[in-house]
């Protein structure tokens, strides 16, 4: 299969599989609930998703990973069955052979379960060392010791899992949340984040002269937007190599742990208030979870502001992925001296981005227009799509590890340029985010800071 | 992700070495995850911090705001404050001076 047709096939497959899972979650929530509004209004939310009992991730554990295994194992099997079924249906629709896929898929899924169990150990979880890291390491461990077995290869489908996960992630991107913190939120997230992303990318291309524009873009996006999830989205949008995504994720996770530990005491030392401190944390620490942890260390108000700023940045993933995809097919991949026409741009455009945006628009409309839309969307996401998206990303990172040679990986980090790019970009991010947070919450909107402190 | 990676080519002799390396790595994982990390987690400081974050619904390894209860809770709280005080978040101060 040619690369172009394989890509179209993966995009179509991902959209069909994710669309099916989203439809199942929407239908189960709509049919399995008593409905929003009416007498049920007294309850926190009347919307329930029956799938939540059938689809699960491993639970966090302290010293014995098997202590509560009976609580989550059936849900893990349920997730595997639903994901396997959705992918097989997609393959049948796309007329792709399924016979060689199923058994290896079960084995790769088992590796993902192991990665998730490692990530759920409470100390590991506390330091924000998420499953992506362990999934990568398990894959790398196997491929660089006993090697990737040929029998496993049909289920090592990085792009398919990643794109399916990204379309499902679209169902968690609520456009209305972009305005969640009014003008101060827009300025801290919408202004600083794209400026840092563009300047860092420019710095990497023009000053550091990083050979791979894709590596430069993935590092710039994961540092400025929201860590691993942004790295996955931009890597898929600009067709970065697996090793490039691995390098970007590794650097981002290392700095996330460092910043999560260092920033709260630094903010207290600098005497910044909880609102400015929270906004600074939310705007700079890559990972969403680490932002919550660092914010909580500074108090409830700081946590609220930090998590909200990061949530707005989360929402930028769709815009960034779309922008990067358009920029890539229009400028980076063009033939020297020519400007591609619309049909050429459309031919090269990664179609799964449309699935991602479609899911996002659909869920945003339901969130805004349904009675208790927030409760409905939370049930759809928490009960079904979030779990399936997590499994897709975990499978993608296991697949990356299984396909990666450590010697090749070291080539991408040679010379330390990616590290320098990250450090310089993060320094700019820290400076601009602090200035904008001070300007917004101390100078222009002090009343907003007063409200948030209540 | 357009390019395939080069796979490590393992000879028959190297395969046995690989199996031993894999076994050693897996043993190390079991030792660290079931011995060292639980012991670290039992220290007073870490135990208190982990309990504090769990009580607040914060998941430090979350990738997206939907992965932690604190994400939904804080979003709802800020949304309520924004609705109650829209002027504070939207009106530029020099506009109503």
Features:
heterodimer, A: 454 residues, mainly alpha, 19 helices, globular, B: 97 residues, disordered N terminus
Tell me the count of domains of chain B: 2
- Please tell me how large the radius of gyration of chain B is: 26 Å
The chain-level structural class of chain B is mainly alpha
Order of helix and strand elements from N to C terminus of chain B: HHHH
What characterizes the major β-sheet of chain B?
A: none
Helix percentage of chain A: over 70%
Strand fraction band of chain B? under 5%
Tell the overall outline of chain B. Answer: elongated
Number of strands of chain B: 0
Mean pLDDT of chain A: 90
Radius of gyration computed on alpha carbons of chain A = 22 Å
Structural class of chain A: mainly alpha
What number of structural domains do the residues of chain A give? 1
Written as H for each helix and E for each strand, in order along the chain, the element string of chain A is: HHHHHHHHHHHHHHHHHHH
| Annotation field: number of helices of chain B | 4
Give the uncertain stretches of chain A in residue-range form. 38-42
Question: Can you describe this structure?
Answer:
The complex is a heterodimer of chains A (454) and B (97). By secondary structure, chain A is mainly alpha-helical. Chain A contains 19 helices and no strands. Chain A is 74% helix and 0% strand. The relative contact order of chain B is 0.05. The chains are: A mainly alpha (454), B mainly alpha (97).
Give the topology, please.
The complex is a heterodimer of chains A (454) and B (97).
Chain A: H1 3-32, H2 69-93, H3 102-119, H4 122-126, H5 131-143, H6 158-170, H7 182-207, H8 213-224, H9 228-237, H10 242-270, H11 274-284, H12 288-297, H13 300-332, H14 342-348, H15 352-369, H16 373-403, H17 406-413, H18 417-444, H19 446-453
Helix pairs in contact in A: 1-2, 1-6, 1-15, 1-16, 2-3, 3-5, 3-16, 5-16, 6-15, 6-16, 7-8, 7-13, 7-18, 8-9, 8-10, 8-18, 9-10, 9-13, 10-12, 10-17, 11-12, 11-13, 11-18, 12-13, 13-15, 15-16, 18-19
Chain B: H1 12-41, H2 44-55, H3 69-84, H4 86-90
